[in-house]
Amino acid sequence: MQASRKSAGTSAAAPAGRPAGVVVGGGISGLIAARDLALAGFDVTVLEAAEDFGGCVGTHRVAGLDLDSGAESYATRSPAVPKLLEELGLQERIASPDPSGAWLQLGGPDPAKAAQRMPQTGLLGIPADPRADEIAQAIGRTGVARAALDRVLPMAPLLRREKVSLGEIVRSRMGEAVLKRLVTPVVGGVYSADPDVLDADSVAPGLRKAMAEHGSLGAAVGAMRRAAPAGSTVASLRGGMGTLTSTLVENLRELGATLLAGTPATGIERSGTGFTVTTDAGTQTADALVVAADGPAAVDVLTPAVPDLAAVRPGPGPGVALGTLVGDNPELDAAGDGSPGCP
Ligand SMILES: Cc1cc2nc3c(=O)[nH]c(=O)nc-3n(C[C@H](O)[C@H](O)[C@H](O)COP(=O)(O)OP(=O)(O)OC[C@H]3O[C@@H](n4cnc5c(N)ncnc54)[C@H](O)[C@@H]3O)c2cc1C
After folding, report:
1. Class of the CATH-defined domain 103-231
2. Are strands 65-68 and 59-62 parallel, antiparallel or unpaired?
């Protein structure tokens, strides 16, 4: 998907009277930022390193089916995505997940017993009530007994610390079985990371405050679930989430933006009140600049303009390998499908 309205082969500046906006990175963040700039009257150029726009939100074709190749749903707790979908005319495509809920495939000698429904009232796999029947199947009676201590253990140290990982909270409140058999599979599926390296306040905002208010982790999860908007917490689009990025690209073209795929930014320098963005094909001048690349890439291109950033360059995120399995088994048709998690 390569589009160009004007060549990047030379120094490019915006037409007189319109400020120039340059966006580095054509994933969902960059495309939305580019749209905001275009709607605000900027002459926008999007520089994307890959040959396609969309970044982690895209589609791929397997067995004749067009399937999501990254994000497959969006959270509905904020009105931001529904509002965007309406503005782009995609509201008719919104699809809610099968209400039968998600399943977990846990390790164990008997595969039939290893597959089980996720608790309906959890948060990132943390159960509101660890004594529920489906929880006992997943973590055993000993695990349930340990998890029940959540109601009586003191929790002040967890609340006092400035930073605490989600793994630490779950392990100390409900024990290792809840962490490894319920939370780790779900969190791994969502964040491609172990709960021990994820900051609790980032991935579960409000959880520690709710723990302080309600006196236990389970009660906090229950309260947060009850306070969530009715219905599903995620939704998707018929045709896949890639429909969102391809529609954004079309919309940007209609707004007159210049979309340059296969054109990585290699450096950014300050020039006057704006910036000069360098690519292998030339330079772009920008009155407004948005860098919407991954952390290490963003630091690399911004370091010439902001040398201090080099000291805080983040490491690369966890590698993600995408595996897509297409099966045709009519016996599964009645079983419903949710979002499976695998430890
Ligand atoms: C397998 C998978 C499943 C996911 N599932 C979900 C989900 O269901 N729901 C959800 O909400 N989130 C999900 N996510 C997370 C979500 O997809 C990402 O948070 C989101 O897409 C990030 O968008 P972004 O634009 O910030 O970054 P990216 O998508 O990473 O886009 C950054 C872009 O910048 C480009 N770039 C990098 N360096 C340069 C450079 N020097 N010059 C120009 N361009 C550059 C890259 O090529 C890339 O296209 C999933 C992620 C993955 C990997």
Report:
1. mainly alpha
2. antiparallel
